[in-house]
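Pasting as-is:
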Amino acid sequence: MTRPEPAANTGELRHLADSLRRASAATRDTVVVDGFALYLSPDGAHPFMSLAIPEDAERGDWRSALAALPAAFAARGRSPRIEVFAELHPALLRAADAAGWRRAMTAPVLTLAREALAPVPPAVGEFRWLAPDESGRLETVLRGAHVAYGGDDADPDALDWGPQLVRGLRQGTLLAGAVDVDGVARAGAVVQLGGGTGELAGVWTHPAFRRRGLARQACHALLAGAFAREVASAWLSAAEGALGLYEGLGFVRVGTQVNLEPP
């Protein structure tokens, strides 16, 4: 039997949208255009690291704003991408569908209250925090994550997120860590802080080390570290097949995230 989807929590989604804006602004340059705020990745980062978030939930006609958005990104040397919570912006999604924008990702959004974090899991490796001056370890983690997401660790773009990661670590707006096995990072994640909320993102495990509990250990340590900094809650958009991991940590679903790319 198919499990029914829970009703969306629009109040919580509005809070998350505000947190996403704050966190995105902390590590990116912000430009406001018609209907959207553009958050532009620093020079040297991959253009895909930039994004647009809708500013006006009540706007009725999004056609002109959508039509102008690709040129706004191109003028700044970045690739167009929109992140939106579906339940807050149905009119935007209808307009994007009509204009041929592609739904590159549709994923459940989950939240976790500080007091709901599951008990500490058994240690299966050594969790270590990442620091901005650990260039060798940062490279190992970035290459490991790139492999986990289907790339090759020799790819020239494996390190593209490095400048943004270092910027966030230095500012204290990002927490990052990895679990080592035999002295090598084999799983990890980051938490992006903003507006009293932390976004758990970039969760990865090296393909040869999956199903050992490494990702769960990394996520739990990062979430506990975020909550120790007076962060009241955490959220994420769950990749396909990962719901069990996050529900086991205590997360519950509140809505749906859609990422849009132009035709």
